[in-house]
Design the sequence.
C-alpha cells in the first residue's frame, strides 16, 4: 500500500494541519529530551494510578479537545458567514461538522467532567483513592487512545463525514466506503469501554469508600450527581457498545443490520443510537448541575436549599432519561401514537429540572453573594439554561417538532443547554477546584474577562440561530446563498469568534496564574467559605489525601468543623496507609488495543488480531500479578502533614 | 485496608477489597444485562426479516437446543457446587467440580459450533439477511462470553493450585462463578426468546 | 455459616431440579401443547423469568448478608431487567409502526409481530 493511499491529500488546510502537527510533535519530543524529562513523564504521569493526577490528565486532554472542536466550529462559521469565499469544500465541511459534534460530546464534555469527578469525588467523601485505581488508569488510557485514534483521522485515511449521529444507511459500507466511518466506530468504542469502567469504578467508590458515618444523604451534591451519572453510564453505555459493534460488523464483515439489502432496517440504528444518546445528554448535564450546586452554595454562603429535593430530582431525571429517546426522531414516521407517548414523557423531564432551578434561586434568595469567577459562570448558567430548556419543551411537542426538526432552531437549542450547562460548569468547576489541583488560584481579573467575553460571545453566536431556524435554515447546511439569512449568520459568526477569544484568554490565564498567582497556604482557598471535605485537606493535597479519615454525619461537615476549630488531622490516630503501586501495564494494554482498533479501521485483520492478542496477554499478566501495593509509614505521614499544616 | 480483615465469614468477603470487587462485578453484570438486552431488542425488531435465506422454523432443531440447554444448566449447578466446596475449604472438591463445569461448557460450545456450521451449510450465514445477522451476533456474543469464561476459569484454577484458597483467590473464583451463572441466565432467555418463540411464530 | 458445612447444598439441588423441570415444561408448551401462540409466549416468558430468579437467588448468592453490599446487587439486576424490558418492548413499539417487512415479508408474520409486541408490553408492566 502506498503512503498516499493512507494520508489525506489535496486540501491546503489539511496540509497546514499536518505540518503544524509534525512541528508540535517534534517540539514536544525535543523539549522532553532536552530537559531530560522522559523518566519523569513515565514515572510521574504515564504510569500513575493516583486519581488526582489522572484527573488532571483528563482535564488537559479535554482542553486540547475543546481547542480542536472549537477550531472546527470556527471554520464552519467562517464558511457560513462568507459563502462566496469558498473556504471549505463540501466534503471537508461534512467532515468538520461530524468531528466537531463527536469531539465536543465524547472527547471534551465527558472527559472534562470525569476529570473533575476523578479529582474531587474521593476528596469529598474522605476516600484515599478510587476503589480500583488500576482500572481507573486503564479507563483514562482507553479514553485517551480512543480520542487520538479519532483525531488522527483527518490526516490519515480521512475523517468520518456522516454527522456525529452517524445515521445509517449513509454511514454504512455502501454509501461511506473507506476508513473514515471506521475511525468514528473504533474511536468511540475504545473510549466508551473506558467510560463504562469509570462508571463502575466511581459507583463502587461512592457506595463503599465514604468516610465513617457518612450516609448517602450526607454526601455533597456533586458526589450525588456523580453517583446518579454513573448509574446512567452503567446502563446506557452498553447500548452504544452494541450499536457501534453492530455497525462495525455491518461495515467490516458484511452483516445486514442497518443496510438497504437483506431486509436490514437502517432506522434501527437511530433507535439504538438515541437509546444511548438521550441518557448520554444527562450524563453530561447532571454533573454540571452538581458543580453549580456546590459553587452556588459556597458563594451564597448558605446551605443548598432543598438538598433532598435536589437529589430526588436528579434520580427522577435519570430514570426518565431512558424513556424519551424517540423525541430525537419524531419525523421518522413511527406514527402519531408512538410520538404522543414520547412527547409526554419528554415534557415530564421539565418538572424535576424546574425543581432544581427553583432550588438554586431559593439558595441565592437573601444571601450575601460573592461574585467570584466560578460564581459568575454559575449565575450566567441559570437564565441561559432556561432559554435552552424552554426551547427544548417546544421541540418536545411532536407536532411542532415537524417544523423545528433539523433546523438551526434545534442547533441553537442544544448549544444553549450543552454550552450554558456543561461548558459553563466545566469552567466553573475548573476555576473553583483549581487551587486543589495546582496549589494556586486562577487570576480573578483575567478570569472575569474570559467569562464576559465567552458569555457575550455565546449569546451573540447562538441566539440568532433560533431565528435562523424559524426562518427555515436547515442544520448541516454547507453554503447559505439565501440573502435574508446572511446578516444573522454574520452576527452569529462574530459571536463564535468572541467565544474563541474568551477561550484564549482563559488559557492565557492558566499560564499567567502559574507565573504570578499567590501560592496557597491554607486548604480552604475561597476565603474560608468551603463547606465540604475537599476543602479540609491541605493544599497541595498529599498523595494519600487524608492522613486520618474524619467522622462525618451531616451535610456540609466542614462548616461545623471550622466553627469548632477542628481539622481532619489527628496525630494520635495515625496508622500506616495502604496505597496502590504505580504501573505501566494500563498504558501498554490500551496501546495494544489501540493498535488493534487502528488496524480494524483499515480492515487489516491480521494486525488487529495481533493487537487483540497483545491486549489479552496483558490482561492475563495482570491476573497473575499479586502486587498488593505498599504502606506509607507513620513517620513519613507525620513529616508530610507537619510541613503542610505548618505545625 | 488489610488491617480491617475479618476473621469469620466466607474468605472472599473478609477484606474491604474483596467486597468492593464483588460489588463492582455485580454492577458490571447490570451493564451486561443491558448489553444483551440491546442484542435481544435488535433480534426482536429484525425478526422475520430473513430475505431469501431459510426461515428459522426450517432450521432450528429442538433436540440440539435442549441438549445445549441441559449442558449449560448442569454446568451452572456444578459451578455452584464448586463454590460450595470452596466455602468448605475443600480445594480438591472445588477443582473437581470446576473441571466438570468447564467440560460441560466445552460441550456446549461444541454443539454451538456444530449448529452454526450446519446453518451456514443450509444457506443461513451472517451476511444472508438482517434476521440471520442478528441471530448469529446474539448467539455468538453469548458463545464468546462462554469461551472467555472457560479461559478465565482455567487461569484461576492454575492460580488456586499454586496459591491455595486465600482471600484473593477465593474472591477471584467467586467472581467467575457469578459470571458463569450469569451466562446461564442469558442462555435461558436465548433459549426462550430465540429458539422457543422462533418455533411457534 | 452452618449451611456451608453440609456436604450437599440442598438449595442448589432444588434449584437445579426446578430449572430442569421448567425447561422441559417450556419445551412441552412449544412443541406439545395446543395453546394459542400468544399464550405460549406469555407462559414461556414467565418461566424464563422464574428460571433467571432461580439462578440469581439460589445460585448467585445475591442476597448474602456477609457481602455487606446490601441491596445494591439486587438493585442493579432489577434496574437492568427493567431497562431490558424497556429496550425490547420500546424498540418493537417504535419500530413496528409505519414499517412493514418490505416486499419480501409475509403479511401474516407482521401481524404476529404486533401481537408479540403487545405481550411484551403487558409483561413489562
Sequence:
Amino acid at each position: 500500500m502506498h503512503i498516499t493511499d493512507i494520508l489525506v491529500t489535496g486540501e491546503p488546510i489539511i496540509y497546514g494541519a499536518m505540518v503544524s502537527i509534525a512541528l508540535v510533535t517534534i517540539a514536544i519530543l525535543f523539549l522532553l529530551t532536552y530537559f531530560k524529562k522522559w523518566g519523569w513523564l513515565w514515572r510521574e504521569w504515564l504510569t500513575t494510578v493516583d486519581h488526582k493526577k489522572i484527573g488532571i490528565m483528563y482535564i488537559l486532554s479535554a482542553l486540547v479537545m475543546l481547542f480542536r472542536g472549537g477550531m472546527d466550529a470556527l471554520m464552519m462559521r467562517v464558511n457560513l458567514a462568507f459563502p462566496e469565499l469558498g473556504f471549505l469544500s463540501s466534503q471537508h465541511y461534512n467532515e468538520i461538522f461530524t468531528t466537531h459534534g463527536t469531539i465536543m460530546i465524547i472527547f471534551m464534555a465527558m472527559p472534562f467532567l470525569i476529570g473533575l469527578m476523578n479529582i474531587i469525588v474521593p476528596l469529598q467523601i474522605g476516600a484515599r483513592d478510587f476503589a480500583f485505581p488500576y482500572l481507573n488508569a486503564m479507563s483514562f488510557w482507553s479514553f485517551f487512545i480512543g480520542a487520538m485514534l479519532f483525531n488522527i483521522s483527518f490526516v490519515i485515511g480521512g475523517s468520518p463525514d456522516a454527522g456525529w449521529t452517524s445515521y445509517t444507511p449513509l454511514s454504512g459500507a455502501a454509501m461511506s466506503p473507506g476508513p473514515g466511518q471506521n475511525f468514528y466506530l473504533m474511536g468511540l468504542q475504545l473510549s466508551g469501554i473506558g467510560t463504562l469502567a469509570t462508571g463502575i469504578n466511581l459507583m463502587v467508590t461512592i457506595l463503599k469508600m465514604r468516610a465513617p458515618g457518612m450516609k448517602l444523604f450526607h454526601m455533597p451534591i456533586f458526589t450525588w450527581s456523580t453517583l446518579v451519572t454513573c448509574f446512567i453510564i452503567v446502563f446506557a453505555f452498553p447500548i452504544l457498545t452494541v450499536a457501534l459493534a453492530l455497525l462495525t460488523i455491518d461495515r467490516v464483515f458484511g452483516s445486514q443490520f442497518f443496510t438497504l439489502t437483506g431486509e436490514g432496517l437502517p432506522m434501527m440504528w437511530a433507535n439504538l443510537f438515541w437509546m444511548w444518546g438521550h441518557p448520554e445528554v444527562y450524563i453530561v448535564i447532571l454533573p454540571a448541575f452538581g458543580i453549580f450546586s456546590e459553587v452556588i452554595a459556597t458563594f451564597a454562603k448558605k446551605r443548598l436549599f432543598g438538598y433532598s429535593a435536589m437529589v430526588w430530582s436528579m434520580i427522577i431525571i435519570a430514570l426518565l432519561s431512558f424513556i424519551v429517546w424517540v423525541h430525537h426522531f419524531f419525523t421518522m414516521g413511527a406514527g402519531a401514537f408512538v410520538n404522543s407517548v414520547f412527547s409526554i414523557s419528554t415534557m415530564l423531564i421539565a418538572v424535576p429540572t424546574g425543581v432544581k432551578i427553583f432550588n438554586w434561586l431559593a439558595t441565592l434568595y437573601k444571601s450575601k453573594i460573592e461574585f467570584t469567577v466560578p460564581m459568575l459562570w454559575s449565575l450566567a448558567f441559570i437564565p441561559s439554561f432556561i432559554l435552552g430548556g424552554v426551547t427544548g419543551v417546544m421541540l418536545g411537542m411532536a407536532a411542532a417538532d415537524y417544523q423545528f426538526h433539523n433546523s438551526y432552531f434545534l442547533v441553537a437549542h442544544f448549544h444553549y443547554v450543552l454550552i450554558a450547562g456543561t461548558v459553563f460548569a466545566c469552567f466553573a468547576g475548573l476555576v473553583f477546584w483549581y487551587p486543589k489541583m495546582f496549589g494556586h488560584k486562577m487570576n480573578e481579573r483575567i478570569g472575569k474577562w474570559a467569562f464576559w467575553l465567552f458569555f457575550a460571545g455565546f449569546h451573540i453566536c447562538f441566539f440568532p440561530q433560533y431565528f435562523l431556524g424559524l426562518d427555515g435554515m436547515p442544520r448541516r447546511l454547507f453554503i447559505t446563498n439565501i440573502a435574508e439569512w446572511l446578516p444573522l449568520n454574520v452576527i452569529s459568526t462574530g459571536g463564535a469568534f468572541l467565544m474563541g477569544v474568551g477561550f484564549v484568554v482563559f488559557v492565557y490565564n492558566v499560564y499567567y496564574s502559574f507565573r504570578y498567582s499567590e501560592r496557597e497556604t491554607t486548604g480552604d482557598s475561597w476565603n474560608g467559605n468551603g463547606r465540604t471535605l475537599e476543602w479540609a485537606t491541605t493544599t497541595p493535597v498529599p498523595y494519600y489525601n487524608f492522613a486520618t479519615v474524619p467522622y462525618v454525619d451531616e451535610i456540609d461537615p466542614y462548616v461545623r468543623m471550622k466553627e469548632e476549630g477542628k481539622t481532619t488531622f489527628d496525630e494520635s490516630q495515625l496508622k500506616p496507609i495502604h496505597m496502590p503501586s504505580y504501573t505501566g501495564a494500563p498504558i501498554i494494554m490500551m496501546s495494544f488495543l489501540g493498535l488493534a482498533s487502528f488496524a480494524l479501521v483499515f480492515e487489516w485483520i491480521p494486525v488487529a488480531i495481533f493487537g487483540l492478542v497483545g491486549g489479552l496477554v496483558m490482561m492475563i499478566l495482570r491476573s497473575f500479578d499479586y502486587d498488593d501495593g505498599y504502606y506509607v509509614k507513620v513517620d513519613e505521614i507525620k513529616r508530610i502533614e507537619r510541613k503542610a499544616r505548618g505545625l | 485496608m488489610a488491617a480491617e480483615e475479618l476473621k469469620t465469614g466466607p474468605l472472599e468477603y473478609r477484606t474491604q477489597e474483596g467486597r468492593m470487587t464483588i460489588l463492582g462485578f455485580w454492577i458490571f453484570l447490570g451493564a451486561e444485562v443491558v448489553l444483551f438486552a440491546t442484542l435481544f431488542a435488535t433480534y426482536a425488531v429484525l425478526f422475520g426479516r430473513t430475505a431469501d435465506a431459510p426461515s428459522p422454523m426450517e432450521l432450528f432443531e429442538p433436540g440440539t437446543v435442549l441438549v445445549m440447554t441441559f449442558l449449560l444448566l448442569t454446568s451452572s449447578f456444578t459451578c455452584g457446587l464448586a463454590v460450595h466446596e470452596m466455602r468448605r475449604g475443600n480445594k480438591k472438591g472445588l477443582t473437581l467440580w470446576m473441571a466438570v463445569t468447564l467440560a460441560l461448557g466445552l460441550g456446549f460450545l461444541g454443539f454451538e459450533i456444530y449448529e452454526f456450521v450446519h446453518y451456514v451449510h443450509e444457506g443461513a450465514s451472517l451476511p444472508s439477511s438482517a434476521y440471520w445477522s442478528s441471530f448469529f451476533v446474539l448467539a455468538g456474543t453469548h458463545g464468546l462470553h462462554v469461551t472467555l469464561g472457560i479461559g478465565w476459569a482455567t487461569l484461576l484454577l492454575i492460580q488456586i493450585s499454586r496459591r491455595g484458597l486465600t482471600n484473593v483467590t477465593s474472591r477471584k473464583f467467586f467472581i467467575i462463578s457469578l459470571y458463569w451463572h450469569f451466562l446461564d441466565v442469558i442462555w435461558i432467555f436465548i433459549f426462550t426468546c430465540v429458539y422457543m418463540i422462533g418455533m411457534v411464530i | 455459616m452452618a449451611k456451608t458445612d453440609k456436604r450437599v447444598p440442598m438449595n442448589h439441588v432444588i434449584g437445579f431440579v426446578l430449572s430442569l423441570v421448567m425447561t422441559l415444561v417450556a419445551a412441552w408448551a412449544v412443541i406439545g401443547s395446543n395453546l394459542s401462540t400468544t399464550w405460549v409466549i406469555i407462559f414461556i416468558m414467565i418461566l424464563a423469568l422464574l428460571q433467571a430468579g432461580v439462578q440469581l437467588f439460589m445460585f448467585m448468592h445475591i442476597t448474602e448478608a456477609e457481602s455487606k453490599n446490601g441491596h445494591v446487587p439486587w438493585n442493579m439486576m432489577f434496574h437492568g431487567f427493567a431497562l431490558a424490558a424497556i429496550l425490547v418492548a420500546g424498540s418493537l413499539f417504535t419500530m413496528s409502526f409505519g414499517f412493514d417487512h418490505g416486499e419480501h415479508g409475509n403479511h401474516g408474520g407482521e401481524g404476529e409481530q404486533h401481537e408479540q409486541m403487545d405481550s411484551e408490553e403487558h409483561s413489562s408492566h
Q: What stands out?
A: The longest helix of chain A spans residues 90-125.
